């Protein structure tokens, strides 16, 4: 197989153009392709795992301290199911009555 010097020059030129158009590290980090980490590449996987476990621990702690349903009802954040069901039933009956009066529901 013979090598063509012009072919090598063309390939080198193409490669140079591709390398010039390549995104830099900062741009890749902004796009989320590379992690924005100051840790050595060999430690980045361990760092990511540590961050994941820290997030899991914080979430677990927050879930343990989350107020129960009774407390949320007392604070007026949630409504009592029985009260909510009776209001819903009354609205349903009122709507059915109106639909019958309008001749839509038989």
UniProtKB/TrEMBL annotation:
**RPEL repeats: from-to residues:** 57-82
Q: Which residues fall in a coiled-coil region?
A: 45-98
Ordered alphabetically, the record's keywords are:
Coiled coil, Repeat
For the keyword Magnesium, the answer is no
Identification of the protein by name: RPEL repeat protein
**Native species of this protein?**
Ceraceosorus guamensis
Write the lineage as a comma-separated list.
Answer: Eukaryota, Fungi, Dikarya, Basidiomycota, Ustilaginomycotina
